[in-house]
Structures are given as C-alpha cells and as structure tokens.
Design brief:
Elements lengths: L15 H23 L5 H27 L10 E2 L8 H25 L2 H22 L17 H4 L4 E2 L6
Antiparallel strand pairs: 1-2
Helix pairs in contact: 1-2, 1-3, 3-4
Pfam families: DUF4439 (PF14530)
Organism: Streptomyces griseus subsp. griseus (strain JCM 4626 / CBS 651.72 / NBRC 13350 / KCC S-0626 / ISP 5235)
Protein name: DUF4439 domain-containing protein
C-alpha cells in the first residue's frame, strides 16, 4: 500500500516529528484500505483477526489525525484507492497482504519513534510492537528488526516496496 510522500509546503515547513506523524497517518490510511479489501476474503479466526486489525488501524489513524492537529498541521488525506503490490484473489494472498501491510506500518512507526519524544514516542513504540506482532502472526514467523525489513539490502520489492496511490478506477 502506498505511504505516499508527505512534503510540507514552502510556507508551512513541518518539523521532523510532524513529518513522521503525517507519514504514519498516510500508512494507516493505506492499512485501513487494505484491511477493508482483504477482510472480505477471510473467514473464521483469520476473518476475526482481520476485523480486529482493521479496527485497530482505524483507531490509530484517528489518533494520528489528532496528533497532526496538536502539532499545528493539517492531516494528510486518504487516497480514494490504492494499488496493491499483488493481486488478492483468495485467502492465501489476503494473509500475505496483511503481513505486508503490517511490515509497512512498522516502518512508518519506526521512523516516528526516531523523530518523536515523550508520550508520542512511547505510543509509536507501542504501535511498532503491535504491527510486528500482527505481522508475525500473519506470516507465521517474525523478522529480526521489525520496521526495518523494507530497508534491508536484497529485500523483496514486491513484498516491501512502495505502492502508488491509484485512482478510483485502479489505474496509476
């Protein structure tokens, strides 16, 4: 899912913390979209896990929007649709997408941990931990450094690379 570039306007220069909060917010927008899509392909226990993750990402998204306002910024808006890193046609690919979403969320929160201080840093660390745990559950295993896997040399670009925002018709 896309965590599109968040650039401040020239007259409204953002702090590194606000930029990281905006990037995490953009990642949460993408995760909410992704879970909305993949949830329809999962049932039973996995479907329940997807619904819980969807609700959790919505809550984090809303909290980040408040944080942006608290920092004096204007929240980055969600895109109408996002291009997926691969087709999600069945439960297996839905589970794979969930793991990718959580890896990308972990990356955004790792950046926020680095940029923030105090309570916001603690919240970001908690969100990073939650994303790492969900990713491990979806994947059936974990990674050595959650949130940093997409920066590793030799990482699979299909699994961890950026995905561009798509128009309503799905075209880039």
């Amino acid at each position: 899912m896309s965590t599109r570039s968040v650039r401040p306007s020239e007259e409204d220069a953002e702090t590194p913390e606000l930029t990281a909060v905006q990037a995490a917010l953009a990642a949460e927008h993408a995760a909410v979209y992704g879970y909305g899509l993949l949830g329809g392909r999962l049932d039973g226990k996995r479907g329940g896990e997807a619904r819980a993750a969807y609700d959790g990402h919505r809550a984090r998204r809303d909290a980040l929007a408040r944080s942006v306002r608290d920092l004096g910024g204007r929240s980055v808006a969600s895109d109408a649709a996002y291009a997926l890193p691969f087709a999600v046609a069945d439960a297996s690919s839905a589970v794979r997408l969930a793991a990718v979403l959580e890896d990308r969320i972990a990356g955004a929160y790792a950046d926020l941990v680095r940029a923030a201080e105090g309570a916001r840093r603690k919240e970001a660390a908690g969100a990073l931990r939650e994303a790492a745990v969900r990713s491990a559950r979806w994947r059936g295993g974990n990674v050595a450094f959650p949130g940093l896997a997409e920066r590793a040399a030799g990482a699979d670009p299909d699994a961890t690379g950026p995905v561009e925002a798509a128009g309503a018709d799905g075209a880039r």
